[in-house]
Design a protein that fits this description.
Elements: E1 6-12, H1 29-36, E2 38-40, E3 46-57, H2 58-64
Antiparallel strand pairs: 1-3, 2-3
The protein binds zinc ion (2 copies).
One zinc ion (ZN) is lined by residues 13, 18-20, 37-38, 48, 50-51.
Length: 89
């Protein structure tokens, strides 16, 4: 079971949203500088810490295989309860 909760997601390293460009040779000095702005993910891709997407739901994103923003989570548990009419008194 995966929890539906907001997590800050980032664009993929080397994508259009990443100002640093593609990953350099891992044995070069440039990689160390590059690595300071990026981090690996369990999905084995690097993400750009300078290019946040915003809060996403990892459970939904896994289900749809693309970043699903927290706003569009199908199972939000922290959403405000629907406004119910006050019983008349
Ligand atoms: Zn970057
Ligand atoms: Zn969700």
């Amino acid at each position: 079971m995966t929890d539906h909760k907001p997590e800050t997601w980032f664009h993929e390293a080397g994508s259009d949203h990443c100002p640093h460009g593609a990953e350099p040779d891992r044995h070069s000095d440039a990689w160390n500088t590059w690595a300071e702005h990026h981090t690996g993910t369990p999905q084995d891709i690097f993400i750009c810490l300078d290019a946040p997407i915003g809060p996403c739901c990892s459970a939904c994103s896994e289900e749809f295989d693309e970043p699903i923003s927290w706003e569009h989570c199908t199972q939000r548990t922290t959403a405000a309860p629907a406004v119910t009419e006050e019983p008349g008194r």
